[in-house]
Amino acid sequence: MLTIAAARDLLLSRAELEERGLSSRAIATAVEKKVLHRVHHGWYVESQVRNAAYPEGRHLLEVVAAHAHQRGTDAVSSLTSAVVLHGLPLFRLTPKRVHLSGGALGGHVRRAEVARHQVEVPETDRTSIDGIPCTSLARTVADMVRLAPPEAGMSIADAALRRAAWDDTALTYDEASAENVRAQVRDIMERFPGARGIRRGRFVLGLADGRAQLPGESVSRLYLVQLGFAVPRLQVPIPGPGGRWYHVDFGLDDVRAWGEYDGEGKYLDAELRGGLSLEEALLAEKAREDWIRGTTDRRFPRWGKAAIASASALGARLASFHVHPPV
Question: For the chain, how many structural domains are there in total?
Answer without folding.
Answer: 1
